[in-house]
Amino acid sequence: MIRVLELAAVVAGVFFMAVASIGVLRLPDFYHRIHAPTKAATLGLTFLLLAAALAVRETEVWTKAALALLFLAATAPVGAHLLCRAAYRAGVPASRQTELDEYCPYIGERTADCED
Questions:
Q1: Is 94 in a helix, a strand, or coil?
Q2: Which one of 6, 10, 37, 95 has the minimum C-beta count within 10 Å?
Q3: 58, 31 in Cβ contact below 8 A?
Q4: Would the pTM of this model clear 0.85, i.e. be above it?
């Protein structure tokens, strides 16, 4: 039964990692592309760490997997936000499909570009 759970976790992890990779390639601009590795790869790594912990079944491995997930959950969203904010301030253009810019009024030097 444990082997089936391991296999399912590995398959799910590889699936979400593949979805993240495809998302980076297919999404239209930087702001959309940053979500693929942040969300899907985090979920994929969660499943892969779960599979590793199930395979080894030692307390030390479970602890390290839990700490890795905690670190990833705390840093991935913050890192993605900082990258998007820096790209926005540097003037990286958004896709033409982007209809709403909620961040524009909060940036002092770019308020003249805001559309009401």
A1: coil
A2: 95
A3: no
A4: no
